[in-house]
Amino acid sequence: AKVAGKNCHRFYSRAMDQAVERRVRMEQDLRGAWERGELSLAYQPVYRLQDRRLVGAEALLRWQHPEHGAVAPSVFIDVAEQSGLIETIGPQVLRAACADAMQWRRDFPGCDVFVSVNVSPRQLRNGDLAALVDHVLSTTGLPAAGLHIELTETAVIGDEVRVSSLLARLRDAGVKVWLDDFGTGFSGLSHLRRVPVDGVKIDRSFIADVLRDPDDLALTTAIIAMAHSLGITVVAEGVEKEGQYDVLRERGCDLAQGYWLGHPMTGQDFRGLLG
Ligand code: C2E
Ligand code: CA
Ligand code: CA
Ligand code: CA
Fold first, then answer.
1. pLDDT over 70 for what percent of the chain?
2. For residue 114, what are the β-bridge partners?
3. Could you report the predicted ipTM of this complex, rounded to two decimals?
4. Contact 204, 256 (CB under 8 A)
5. How far away, in angstroms, is 198 Cα from ligand 4 center?
6. Taking the complete model, does pTM exceed 0.95, yes or no?
7. Residues in Cβ contact with 181 at an 8 Å cutoff, skipping those fewer than 6 apart
8. Of 112, 144, 201, 236, which residue is least crowded by CB atoms under 10 Å?
9. Which of 30, 46, 60 to mutate to test the pocket of ligand 1 (most atoms within 8 A of CB)?
10. What is the pLDDT of residues 50-88, one digit of tens each?
């Protein structure tokens, strides 16, 4: 739009209206997208560092919009979260991921790879996640050990008592709980005392600079040592180079994922890694 200097104020409010309008339209488009087959899951392989054994996969949601093509998860997940649609989509993701993981086990005897599912703050706050997980595991037949739940620190903050008892229920059932994007919040370390988790995923912003920035290497090394002293598994994400893999293995990090090891891929392609 052409704007005169004087109309600057009007321009900005117009631009803002457009942003709001875009979000509203995206929300409308997202409604029912699962049923129309526009949403699918990609799987990114997770490896054990020590021997590079394939141990699991993170399920990552994809949206193929009929007109706009692929929409970035960082954009539409946020819209789903704000609008509450995530409370419908989240359970659909969980069901589909567990069904896929169970199918891998049926098709490849002896296969015990886990599937890791992202759960948003809103899903954790509203609804009974433990009951949902229980139901999904029993209907798909997936053993609890085959499911990992990833939560962000923001999901956990502010409601530690309720979240702790919810996580305790999940962990008692045998589901592993991981704290995602670990290290980006300010209170990461102190949270581990109050919120019981099985693992932390070191945010990829640390891993990105681990070969260049001594501070990031020091922090990563400290996180690994601290987590291990608490009996917590450490996962590194965003491993894009062999050198990063090597240094993380040297420092005793347990698991890793990233473009150097494998991009997120279709379920079909992931099956190809299994057998
Ligand atoms: P996240 O949970 O931190 O997921 C990891 C993101 O890093 C993914 O982006 C993945 O494609 C990307 N990635 C993996 N390896 C590398 C690497 O080596 N380098 C770089 N630069 N990036 C790498 P994606 O798929 O775009 O997902 C973005 C975010 O959307 C996720 O971040 C997660 O917060 C959210 N998300 C995705 N699927 C779901 C879902 O089913 N439910 C919920 N609640 N959130 C989801
Ligand atoms: Ca994640
Ligand atoms: Ca992450
Ligand atoms: Ca840095």
1. 94
2. 56
3. 0.96
4. no
5. 26
6. no
7. 152, 153, 201, 203
8. 112
9. 60
10. 999 999 999 999 999 999 999 999 999 999 999 999 999
Which residue type, as a one-letter code, is found at position 142? L
Residue 46 burial by Cβ neighbours in a 10 Å radius (0-12, 13-18, 19+): buried
pLDDT at 168: 93
Report how far Cα 249 is from the mean position of its chain's Cα atoms: 22
Q: Which atom of ligand 1 is nearest to the CA of 201?
A: 3
Residues in the chain: 275
**pLDDT of 206-260, one tens digit each?**
999 999 999 999 999 999 999 999 999 999 999 999 999 999 999 999 999 999 9
Residue with tokens 């929409």: 71
